[in-house]
């Protein structure tokens, strides 16, 4: 009987290619050494795009790009994280452009509301990141939360009441109801003050959609009747109360 042919091992199959593989490895090492040492790859030009509120000078200062390190060896993720520490900066993308350029593209955060936590208040974005201290000149809705929350620029406010007020504001804004301020009473009920000073007592938010539909209908009647109203109480939707001035 003819003996079965023994299957060649993996080492035997690649043995003819050892020399090309070794040469390719040496070439890769040489290319890496060239990229690390040739001064022609050192960053000569750094371009910043997408920034309006944050100056290019501040972004470059925080980026801390080493001037004598090849663009291929620059730690782009670490650079991006440093830039993202700027309160108004959201997302950062860094692109290498041979032979000696870096492009930094940023997406900035947009002011969303004033977060009032006595004795401090600050401008925050949609994600409740503190952007800067409020000056009092902003035309933004005010979210009144419990006192003494640390409002350090760049930090995120993670309290439940802040997130609840933010979500309530967005739900009202989609219905063209524009609040001037939102707060929670001692029982956790939502209290809203509209632009004209009218107060809306909403209470618990588990049925917020139903209550906002009711508020919308009442506001439409008030506008048509030109009545001066001080407050609307829909904490009990089946028996709303209107307080006239």
What's the CATH H-level homologous superfamily of the largest domain?
A: Cell division protein FtsQ/DivIB
The description of the largest β-sheet is: 9 strands, mixed
- Poorly predicted residue ranges: none
Order of helices and strands: HHEHHEEEEEEHEEEHEE
Strand arrangement, major sheet: 6-5-4-7-8-9-10-11-12
Rg for CA atoms = 30 Å
Structural class: alpha/beta
What's the CATH architecture name of the largest domain?
3-Layer(aba) Sandwich
Strand content: 25-35%
What is the number of E strands? 12
What level of helicity do the residues show?
A: 25-40%
Number of helices: 6
Coarse morphology: elongated
Terminal-residue CA separation = 111 Å
Average of pLDDT: 88
CATH class descriptor of the largest domain: Alpha Beta
Could you please say which CATH topology of the largest domain applies here? Answer: Rossmann fold
Number of domains: 3
